[in-house]
Amino acid sequence: MQFNAQQQRAVEFDGGHVLVLAGAGTGKTSTIVGRVVHLLEQGVDPRRILLLTFTRRAAREMRHRLGQQVGPTAKKVPAGTFHNFCLQYLRRWPDLFDCQGLSIIDRDDQLQLMKLARGTVIGKDARFPKAAELANYYSYARNTNRRLQEYLKRFTDHSEEIIQLIENVIDDYSKRKRDCRYFDYDDILYIFARQMHRRKSLREKIQKRYDHLLVDEMQDTNPLQWMILDAMRDPAKLFCVGDDAQSIYAFRGADFRNVHGFADRLPGASTLKLEENYRSTQEILDVANWLLDQSPLGYEKKLHAARGNGEKPIWLQVDDEQDEATTVVEDLLERRDGGANWRDHMILTRTAWAARTVEAGLIQEDIPYRFVGGTALMQSAHIKDLISLLRVADNRSDQLAWIRFLTLWPRVGEKTAASAILEVFKQPNTDAISERLQNRFGANPRLGEAYQQCVGLLDAPAKAIEVAIEKLEPLLEKKFDDWDRRSKDFKLLKKLARDHATVGEFLETYTLDPISESEASQEEQDDLVTLITVHSAKGTEAPVCYLIGVQPGNYPHSRNNGDEDQIEEERRVLYVAMTRAKDSMMITGKVRSHGAYTPYYNQKSLDSGTEIPFFLTDIPNALVESDCQYGATNEFGDELTEDDDDWSGPIMSFRD
Ligand SMILES: Nc1ncnc2c1ncn2[C@@H]1O[C@H](COP(=O)(O)OP(=O)(O)OP(=O)(O)O)[C@@H](O)[C@H]1O
């Protein structure tokens, strides 16, 4: 691939810190990879280049592309997510970070722990914020590097009294975390950032290891991640790439305006631009450009297709989810009959839930697919049951896993489990715990054996899983009706575990970056349709893209509270989806029922009497091929009739 002049300038940039601000498909990923190749050619030690990406998949993809250009040296370039990177240091120097023997917990466990804390401090008051809301407050405050109290005062309507109670619940939650040696997702970044800023010697020790920090998806970094970059720069140089129009992680504290403040934060820093889109045809970009143009935020972005013209995107209005699934599946089959590979097709969905009918359609027609961002393998009940044994073997303070593991056994209820756990916690080591379990649960001798054997296999995760299956399968078979289907997942688990050196590392990898059941089972298959949530689709592309569920209530999502920032974030989600397509884009959604637009309301909009807008309401007819023009208006807002054949204004207007 020949870089264009703008890309070449970025690749060879020889100044200080730099931000490469670029639109979708303009070659940001290619440029980062090119930059690494350039640095290696200049003689930079590969271990002194750090590549920070947003997902593990993105890191793998960059390594792969790098490998194609520089061979095995690619493996020497450290590449990973912020979380992986920080965790590596927390593991390497636990004393310096004050975090010995930690276990990472996922969102489910976090909520369970929060529920316990809420129950203890508040009791059963239904009006008090629920566990999920409390967890969100806590997470948002930390990711934006604010004190909880300050965050609650500024961004919520809660009274002083409620704020105090929320703080008490969070204190209790934090204490429970410490007692169980748990780290939640945010702790990893938080502890790393805090220690880097507090301990000069530690900061210098880590700073010294890198000359170049390359950061992908800069628009989605939050203040906590910025603190980390800030602590690591100088002498290391920052090379950050980002697109303000693709910022879709505000719920984790990212602020797309951050990329605009880059030069102010780092005096002397440069900003470079990439403006030529190499991914899509102009017709696809025209729709994406139009969408962004409707925003009051003024992104000033007009993507221009280096590839020139192609087909117009298709926008089909469907009757319901079943009709949508049939439409997509039929189109897929037709393309396949025409000689296309399955792998050239990507179906983009707003949420995993919204894709269930299309997924059923794929299964029914035997179309091979992988679901990226679908239900995580590790979140299925039977897998959680099995894993609970590995978790207690790995961390004997893991209270949530102990409850799950113990209550799997006959005649062990939550009360018995809770009192057994108290005894377990008093034991000085794992041998003593095994003995205690044998004595206490003599009627279930396999319980103690299972624990003891898994403790002995912490360095052999696949074997530990075999033991767990052997000991727990008879119990799980009775517990689940659909056992035949579920038991297949255990094979997948063993396969995944083979690539890890320890049980801890295995658990941690899939807690941090969950893998869906269909992804895990199809890892070696190459020719597959990709079904993917838009949030997981960042950085990906496919010749043919289907955007499903593009309808009122999904874009923007009905969960948004009418706040302009949230609505604009939702617009960017749709923009990301649209800019994945290379050659063809089909947009489907249930926009009308019985020939009329279906207005959409949530409770808040009902209260205020305003319906939730829909982004494609006024899309000009000239931009898309559509099956429906009836009842639309032209660009001057006049009502159209069925006779308006050659009209090319907006397809629909919902203003009436
Ligand atoms: N100079 C070039 N010549 C030809 N093709 C290019 C060039 N630069 C990038 N491409 C191709 O354009 C496509 C988009 O590139 P890339 O994935 O790097 O863009 P991106 O800016 O990271 O996209 P996004 O942010 O939308 O995910 C890829 O298929 C890539 O190979």
From TrEMBL:
KW NAD (keyword) present: no
Protein keywords: ATP-binding, Helicase, Hydrolase, Isomerase, Nucleotide-binding
GO BP terms: recombinational repair
Family matches, as InterPro entries: DExx_box_DNA_helicase_dom_sf, DNA_helicase_UvrD-like_C, DNA_helicase_UvrD/REP, P-loop_NTPase, UvrD-like_ATP-bd
Reactions listed under catalytic activity: Couples ATP hydrolysis with the unwinding of duplex DNA by translocating in the 3'-5' direction; ATP + H2O = ADP + phosphate + H(+)
Binding site for ATP: 22-29
Residues covered by the UvrD-like helicase C-terminal domain: 282-539
MF (Gene Ontology): 3'-5' DNA helicase activity; ATP binding; ATP hydrolysis activity; DNA binding
Name of the top EC class for this enzyme: isomerase
Record's signal peptide: none
Pfam name, any one: UvrD-helicase
Biased segments, Acidic residues type: 636-647
Similarity field: Belongs to the helicase family. UvrD subfamily.
Listed name of the protein: DNA 3'-5' helicase
Organism: Stieleria bergensis
Gene label: uvrD1
